From TrEMBL:
Transmembrane segments: none annotated. This is Reverse transcriptase/retrotransposon-derived protein RNase H-like domain-containing protein. It comes from Taxus chinensis (Chinese yew). Keywords: Multifunctional enzyme. One of its GO terms (molecular function) is catalytic activity. It comes from the Eukaryota.
Length: 145
């Protein structure tokens, strides 16, 4: 729940969430302690989030890495919400452009209640994805995602 209020929540919490795996022994390390303190600091500091205007224009900014993916929903350059998650096991083998596309799809699914039926701006740092959005659907395999 708190992930939407903290930028890079899943990345920060990764040492702690990795303790939940069945096959892993629970060992609280210095990395876990550091992550816990960082999250506590992030959650007790007032976030600068804005209440969305349903009639305003939205911008979605996404990014992906070898560890996770995330996005920011903005309106008038003010943060409405953050979203992030760790990569699923099978996603860890994806090529970078596929991960960037997964990040976009994930963000759009999370914020569809804000975005459906409205024009919005989408920003990603992966230039190769611009090609996907300029091709007819029949020519683009990635459009099936």
């Amino acid at each position: 729940y708190y992930g939407k209020f903290v930028k890079d929540f899943s990345k920060i919490a990764a040492p702690i969430t990795s303790l939940q795996k069945k096959d892993k022994k629970f060992v609280w390390t210095d990395k876990c302690e550091s992550a816990f303190k960082n999250l506590k600091e992030q959650l007790t500091t007032t976030p600068i989030l804005t209440v969305p205007d349903p009639n305003g224009n939205f911008m979605v900014v996404t990014d992906a890495s070898g560890e996770g993916l995330g996005g920011i929903l903005l309106q008038n350059n003010h943060v409405i919400a953050y979203e992030s998650r760790k990569l699923k096991l099978h996603e860890q083998n994806y090529a970078p452009h596929d991960l960037e596309l997964v990040a976009i799809v994930h963000a759009l699914q999370m914020w569809r209640h804000y975005l459906l039926g409205k024009p919005f701006e989408l920003k990603t740092d992966h230039l190769g994805l611009k090609y996907i959005f300029t091709q007819p659907k029949s020519e683009c395999e990635a459009a099936k995602m």
